[in-house]
Amino acid sequence: MNALAARRRHPAAIAILLMLGLLVTGFAYAAVAPQPAKAESSSAEDVAAGKQLFQANCASCHGVNAEGRATGNGDKIAGPALAGVGAAAVDFQMGTGRMPMRAPAVQAPRGQVQFTQDQIDQVGAYIASLAPGPAVPSEEDVDASKGDPAKGGELFRVNCAMCHNFAGSGGALTRGKYAPSLMGVESKHIYEAMETGPQSMPVFNDGNIAPEDKRDVIAFLKSVEDTPQQGGHALGSLGPVTEGWFAWFFGLGILIAAAVWLGQKSA
Q1: pTM for the model
Q2: Which residues are listed as membrane-spanning (predicted)?
Q3: Which of 81, 116, 194, 225 has the most other CB atoms within 10 Å of its CB?
Q4: Domain range for 201
């Protein structure tokens, strides 16, 4: 007992116990933590073709091997490293015309798609071959008809409405950035945005929002698109900003016009 007590009082005992605790915690987390999505297997031909397309169209910003590239003064990143972003990020960025980026800006705007879907898939296969990452979702994953719009609306208001507006119409952020409108966006691109977190958007992986919950969010947004505006013009669904502007501009304009007309008539 005296020898055991002496070991407990040894100066290294606390450090050893802490290290053992950290090791046990690390192994336990590795066992239960959700694993990153792995890209679907692609042929060597697709990977090789995607690498050629990448080096011809993307390497000037992202580096020859997608390692990222800094600007001339080295204090900013011209293009981030792409290992681990997965085919889903490639499909979103290139499938919405945001990449290749036309000119340096605080945010890549949506534009005309420059590549065919086969070419986008090939670039995605090359990026996915560099490191595991989110794969392009299946048709079932993004099928809005299988989702619950009511549940999706709750999830959207809790996680997305503060940036994208309660109706998905978008909104302004800081430093010239903005949350784009989600109206008219393809279902798979909405899913991919949640998976990969483009621009200032946080990443909602399967540990944060389950795949079926992502489908519910898509179902909600599509229901908003399909719902007729029974109360009249939606004014962009931007809330009191456009409604107040309409009231001041047209309401006061009508009152001023009426006052001028009455004044001229009395004269």
Answers
A1: 0.73
A2: 245-263
A3: 194
A4: 137-228+236-245
